[in-house]
Amino acid sequence: MSSSSGKPSSTELNIPLHVKYIQTLGQNKDDLMYHMTSHLRMNAIYWGLMALCIMNRKDALDRDETIEFVLSCWDDEAGAFGAHPGHDAHILSTLSAIQVLTIHDAVDKIDVSRVVKFILSLQQPSGVFAGDSFGEIDTRFSYIAVQALSLLGHLDKLDVEKTVAYVLKCRNFDGGFGAVIGAESHSGQVFVCVALLAILDKLDEIDQDTLAWWLAERQLPNGGLNGRPQKLEDVCYSFWVLSAISILDKLTWIDADKLAGFILSAQDLENGGIADRPGDQPDVFHTIFGVAGLSLLGHPGLEDVDPVYCLPASLTEKLGLRKAWRALPRRTVS
Amino acid sequence: MSLVASIGAVLTGDNLPSSIELLPGDPEVWLTTGQDYLMTEGNLGIPQKTAHKAYLQAVEVFRSCPSSKHLGTEVYDSTDVVNNLISSSAVLLLVNPAHQTALNARKRLVIAGLVDASLELRLNAAFLTLRECSKQSIMWHHRRWLLRRIGSTSKMNHSEQDEDLIMDEDILYDAGLPVSVLSEELVVTSRAAETYQRNYFAWSHRRRVFDALVFLTRQALEARSADLAKLVTLLVDEHASIMKWVDLHVSDYTAMQYLHAIDELILPLVTQSSALLPRSSNDDFEDRLPQHIQSLLQAYPEHESVWMYTRLAPPRDDSGLPPLGGHTTEQARANARRFLAWYAFRLGSATPSITPRDVSTTTTNTRHVMSVLLKSLSE
Fold it and tell me: How far apart are CA B232 and CA B214, in angstroms?
């Protein structure tokens, strides 16, 4: 598909440009956009850092400054992390904080037992997890709880059966999963449910072939992947769908070349970063998931990504957390 | 009056707007000097640039307030500070409906009795007329949180037959909400679905509202209540109304799945209360969905959604298979091939290695795969 903006489509990932893009994020603190995204700043720090790790440029953001920011988001009343100083603790920002500190080998700087207590307190009688004490429930939060406990080495404290039981109730006739019981299948929710089951070694509880079919059907003629039937392609689904399908070891069901081509065509080759689709404005969210998708597709010059955790594979291996999944073999630069 | 205070004021109190719009272009195009917004017949219009300016101010005001966690303590002793929290949190959410901490402040204000829950529900409905807001899961959860506060706290008795209703902590059927409130929720979700099609959280919310209506109807059936006919009619009308929605939005697969789910819940109630209902209206109820699926498939075979709809109620043998040949557009033919491959996969009559990719284009390989599939289905 040729880009409508007239820019040449690329077959290469411009790593230096994207590194620079990430480095300049958050520099313009007077920007409206900076203030409009404070509620997800902690997530954005993780997205930027993880994208750099995949591009083997973890050094491009200052470690001490990053750790200092993470710690400044500690909500002492809750015993967990908010997205920004002064923001309330939430499970979303808490996981991102743990992921960032794990990447920087600085988990010793936090009160792990309090964080574990916060996470466990969010499990509901039905087995699902809430995001905070106000009780919004979503299978995303269940996955976040499982990943967080796993990274902190406290997975043994989890009521696995109860956790899995709710996830299985979110399974739809098409083999996919929704956010809550009764919600339609959605690629993002499929990812979190599959990854959760992978961490808990419960993948045999689901019909993997039917799910793989649903996932493979997300690919559109232009190579991009969508989140639900008859919706538009979006680069972030390159990760949600691809990681789920690589956990199910069915990556060959996707046309890898076409998908890689789609992701690469969504690069902003002037200012750096990757957008949701060609011609749109880039952002750090689509940058990390585009790069992670390319890594799973074996794109040369990138580090391996663990699709279960969306963390460097070398890191999860070191922590003894690697599960069975298969990405495409890494191609070398010709 | 500061911008935050003036916009905050129109989002506070009991004269709330019923809908909100952020207006494009320069404020001067819309407003006269001294005006910060337009309000006509309950429709609030704020120029986008004005809203953004207000947002940046609200960030500062919100930051200057003590954390809303301290509401109800001596930290929040002055009405000025409380009003600052009320205005700034409302303005923050108007422009950034994903601002979790601002929404938490709203909940704490309700808990402290400083904001009325019913008024907050109305404000939330106005926010939900904004596209960006209607996409936020936290806004819909806020709605159900408020509804549960407004409803009665006595737990209802549910029986074994209610196990087909959704059972988790975010339900509405045990809040004792009257039909009028639940009907209003259907209106709110319809508006949101129009504003942003395939709205994931709006339809999920609608399903939970519908569960509450089903629960009320089952109770009425059990108690042989005089309300039974009215309630069953409401359910059947909802079914008809969504069927019509799908006719007007044939790519709305989310609505199709909702329709299929409620169809299964309604049928037993229609059957059990048939003595009370006008004879002609509901005799054919169980045929409606299959007929609807058939008619859409014939009319719109280029839409992937109608083929997905067909999968919800696939024919049990190949005598009921939709016409797979004779489609004129390449898109319709691709959809038909995909349906056949999926159907064979589900029957278990195709080898596991046939994937969606194998039938997506008209290559030699696809033709080969198709002949294998057709052969396997006729055996």
Answer: 9
